[in-house]
Every structure is written in C-alpha cells, then in structure tokens.
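Encode chain A's predicted structure.
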Amino acid sequence: MKPVPHATSLRRAPVQRRSAERLTRILDACADLLDEVGYDGLSTRAVAQRAGVPIGSVYRFFGNKRAMADALAQRNLERYTERVTARLAAAEGAGWRTAMDAVLDEYLAMKRTAPGFSLVDFGNQIPVGSRYSEPNTRVADRLTDLLSGYLGRTPDDDLRRTFLIAVETADTLVHLAFRVFPNGDERIIEETRELLRAYLARVLD
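Encoded structure for chain A:
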C-alpha cells in the first residue's frame, strides 16, 4: 500500500502573507458556518460575508463549497498531526499505548471543540452523510509516518495496513459515540479504546 498523496482543493495557493491570511479567514468562516447552518445551508456567498472578503476572493481559491470543505478537512488533518506530534514529544519513550491514547484523545478533543469538525472531520463526511475510503487512508498513512519513528518500527505495508484498520475502526465507533450522545458517549469511547489496544497489541507488543 503506497501512501495516498495529500489532497488539495485550492485553485491557487497563497503566495503573499496577506493572501494566506485571507485564506485563513475564509476557512475559519466556513468552519463556523458549518456548525451554524450545516453543509446544505453553506454557500460561498455566506462564507465571503462572514470572512469579510469579496466573493471573488473566495472563488480565487475555491470553485465551490465542496472544495472549501475539502480544504477545511485537509487543514484539520494538518492541525491534528501537529497536536499529536506535540503530545508524543511530551511523552517520548512512553510506549505505544500512550501514543494510541494521544491519537484518540486528540481526535476526540477536535471533535468536541474545533469549529466545523463534527461535520467535516478529515473529509469522511463530505458531503454530510457520505463515506469515502481515501480520507481514512490519508490519516492512516500520516499516523504511520508519524508513529513509526516513535515506535521504532519500519513504516512498511504491514504497519500501514494495521493503522488503516485501526483508523477505520476508531472512525466508525467514534461517530457512533457522537450519534448516541452529542459530546460522545464515554462508554462507547472506552470500549473503542479497549478494542484498539487489544488489536494493536497483536502487532506492537
């Protein structure tokens, strides 16, 4: 299994600082509006108004709202990776169970606090209700590359497959937990944690 290339939905990448700041405002506005009106109610015009930019600025970067949501999902993955990396740096040498807790806990934290994340996460829910395999493969590849050094393992096909199965499992069960309870059913989350530990122990112990 080869790593899936990181997706980009930008028509044009920002070059100047001012352009990058405008893109950040657009994505922030997109995230806030997703929480307020949902994907169906999202529009490029509403995003432009919320971000305080001309509608042409939105279209400079994105052809439609799907592309905006895709870019937000990619930003979510980048921020998630940064958060997990910081947690692992603070717990260096603590073992794979601590690493797995960091991976799951940071995902739950973003699910609960990051604007728009509950609808978009890393792209699995775009459009809302749809399921695509590629976003979870990107997440699994990113985690394989990130964790292999921490665990002292080679990021080979077997390890990528192991993390892909773990990511797919966690994704399904965490979504179940948040359907049962708005902030995530703790019993389902703990069952998910135990299930992941049991599965990963076969490979990582």
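DSSP finds nine helices and no strands in the chain.
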